[in-house]
Design a protein that fits this description.
This protein has nine helices and two strands, in the order ααααααααββα. With 225 residues, it is mostly helical. The longest helix has 17 residues. It starts with 11 loop residues before the first helix and ends in a 7-residue tail after the last helix.
């Protein structure tokens, strides 16, 4: 169970994610976001710890500014980290239980949060469609489209092509799993939504009756803790 793993914000990367998604921030802290990506890429537990902290910030959170900041951290990690992170956030469980659940009508999210989440799902579905291990998000995207949900125009800028780890057998010794190297450049890839953060606190989203029915019909999952 998730709660047996302790506080998601207690790990080194979790502490930084807690700071990077604090609603007291006037805007995104890009230096901190890049540091988060560095930890994800360089430590064994970094990807899993980061996902736990991001999930904690989004699920059942009524502070939509924190959700927007968490989505920025999430997108920044996807654009600057590799397969070990991608495999955790493109699952059906994560997409449905974290992203889609955050925009169901009873949570009354602002329109900017609703559009941001749908844009992420669509961009990931397009970016990872050809990666067999990462198609959970593709399944959710196609399900939502079949329900009639309208998605914004896709933006794929900055998404890295995920590569599965390769197993090699040295001449002497056990099999070694090699993960594709991911290196942040001096100018890291950042999501193109920074100007929209302030909108997360400006009123509630407006859902049409058909949108309400589409999302309520689709989501029948127990609340994730």
């Amino acid at each position: 169970m998730e709660f047996l793993l302790g506080n998601p914000f207690s790990s080194p990367v979790g502490q930084r994610i807690e700071r990077a998604t604090n609603s007291s921030l006037p805007s995104e802290d890009w230096e901190l976001n890049v540091e988060i990506c560095d930890i994800v890429n360089s430590s064994e537990e970094g990807p899993r710890d980061a996902v736990r902290a991001i999930k904690k910030r989004i699920v059942a959170n009524k502070n939509f500014k924190e959700i927007m900041l968490a989505l920025t951290v999430l997108e920044t990690c996807v654009k600057n980290c590799g397969y070990r992170f991608h495999i955790l956030v493109t699952t059906r469980d994560f997409i449905e239980g974290v992203l889609v659940r955050s925009i169901i009508p009873r949570n009354n999210p602002p329109q900017v949060v609703h559009d941001r989440v749908l844009a992420i799902i669509q961009a990931w579905a397009d970016a990872f469609r050809s990666s067999p291990d990462l198609t959970g998000v593709v399944s959710v995207y196609e399900d939502l489209r079949r329900k009639g949900l309208e998605f914004p125009v896709a933006q794929l800028d900055g998404y890295l092509l995920a590569q599965a780890p390769k197993k090699t057998i040295p001449e002497n010794g056990p099999t070694v799993t090699a993960f594709p190297a991911v290196r942040l450049s001096s100018k890291p890839l950042i999501p193109a939504h920074t100007s929209e953060l302030k909108l997360a606190l400006e009123g509630n989203g407006v859902f049409t009756p058909s949108q309400v029915m589409q999302l309520e019909d689709y989501i029948s999952l127990p609340l994730l803790l």
